[in-house]
Amino acid sequence: MTSLIGIVCLTLFPFRLDFSEFHSLHRSPFLLGESLKYVGRLDFFLNVLLFVPFGAGIAAQMRKRGVSRGAALIVALAAGAITSYTVEFLQLFIPMRDSGWNDIISNSMGSVAGLLLFEWCGELFLKPVSRLEKTIEAWLSLWGTCAFLLVYLGFFFTLSVPLQQQTRLSDWDPAASLFVGGDGTAAHAWKGQIAKLEIWNRALPDEFARKLASGDVAPESETGLVASYEFTGTPPYGDHQQFSSKLTWISPSDPPRDSREVKLDGNSWLSTVVPFPDLTRELTRTNQFSIRAVCAPADVADFDRDIVSLSQSSGLANLTLRQDGPDLFVWVRNQLTEKHTGGRRHARDIYLSGVFAAGQLRDILVSYDGSDVSLYVDGKKQPRVYSFSPGAALVPMLVRFKGSDWGGDLIMYDALIFVPAGMFLGMICRKVSGRDPAGRFLWLLGFLLPSALYEFILVWVSGRAVSLWQIGLCLSLTFLGAWLFNADQSCPVRSVHQPG
């Protein structure tokens, strides 16, 4: 089981399946198709090595059941091939992952190699490992194990504070101006129509955001609205909230007159002209924002065009909504995005594919609650939420992947904390008497309290709302760690629940 978890983490990261996109190269997803990547000797060896522990685990289970070596060999080959095929099939729908039959062959060979190595020299390695586990467990008393667990959790919880602080909007430049249809440079001027622009200093509640993006409620019915522009009539366009500056027509051509929406031709844009620090300060104060734009591109052949940008005229942005062909990209400036993407415009971290069609109006809403970014299009919330967690700051330093995915980093970081913590709790379970009420209370407290305390720390630092999903994930990882530690024991965790 441990080896299978390792395979899933290493092959399916960032754990995001996008079934809306499918490579035309593959005629049928079940045939996988020909891999586009070059498989060198090192890649082939690593693919074999990845499944060696898996094959060894198959061998151990077959030996427990008294299965013959020949049958065990067939089972290891079949299990390795099926597992590898499942991984390669799922990788078809994960951006920046590539799949093909070459990996299935090498992974299957690794599974067989793991079985053979276990048969030939498994006991040579298992005996010292088993002795080491027993020595550590005998050396650590009940209270010693509890103290070690507290130190371990205390280290990671303390580390999580500065890591989560990197999601704050404190790096935003107050000298930024608000642009519509560009970023102050002709290179990124947008072509299309825009009817509305609204900005809040807080993340909008989910139900309200859905209704707003579908036109069912008025924007003023939710507090925190700091800018509201309707592009009717003739520029300059004033803010209905009278908080933000007017948006002025910037173009060599004449401004539109008495139109229901402003039309931009790629050589013109709207701007507050001078920096507007009050808007930037208001959003950095709350560390949250929501921005809504009702717009339609002239075509989907243009790339790297800014629909809305809060930036300097030099192009250095705090916040950008950008069109890249039919896709929507969102740039939110904080320490994480600057550090792991180098501040590049083309670091495609937050995006939604297939949003735009030429001439079709889209109601787009982006909501940031201090940690998570949610996207809404025409009243529908997109299932993917981008989580700027402590893992987004740490995981890319430890593991190198193509691109970045904030949701996958969250899972990896939580697993780093709570799976080992669960293993320590599994050791405590074996030391606690099932007849001792104090022991039962200690066991339950050890499972429930760390997840709740960790969530409290993240909420306190980021300002976001409490996430029951996050608490459930941490609890699940904790129980997984306890189960893994006790999986080879005749008296598993359930012995704690024996009646007194």
Question: What does this protein look like?
Answer:
The strands form two sheets. Strands 2, 3, 5, 7, 12, 13, 14 and 15 form an eight-stranded antiparallel sheet that branches. Strands 4-6-1-8-9-10-11 form a seven-stranded antiparallel sheet, with no helix packed on it. The relative contact order is 0.11. It starts with a helix and ends in a 14-residue tail after the last helix. The chain contains 13 helices and 15 strands. The chain has three domains: 127 residues, no CATH class; 140 residues, no CATH class; 211 residues, no CATH class.
Secondary structural class: alpha+beta
Number of E-state strands: 15
Percent of residues in helical segments? 40-55%
| Shape by Cα distribution | elongated
Tell me about the largest β-sheet: 8 strands, antiparallel
Radius of gyration: 27 Å
What number of domains? Answer: 3
Structure, briefly:
This protein has 500 residues and is of the alpha+beta class.
Attribute tags:
500 residues; alpha+beta; 8-stranded antiparallel sheet; 45% helix
List the helices and strands and how they pair.
Blueprint: H1 2-12, H2 41-50, H3 52-64, H4 69-91, H5 101-139, H6 142-165, E1 177-180, E2 191-200, H7 206-213, E3 225-230, E4 248-250, E5 262-265, E6 269-271, H8 277-286, E7 289-297, E8 305-311, E9 317-324, E10 327-332, H9 335-341, E11 350-352, E12 362-368, E13 372-377, E14 380-381, E15 386-387, H10 390-398, H11 406-431, H12 437-462, H13 468-486
Antiparallel strand pairs: 1-6, 1-8, 2-3, 2-5, 2-7, 4-6, 7-12, 8-9, 9-10, 10-11, 12-13, 13-14, 13-15
Helix pairs in contact: 2-5, 3-4, 3-5, 4-5, 6-10, 6-11, 6-12, 10-11, 11-12, 11-13, 12-13
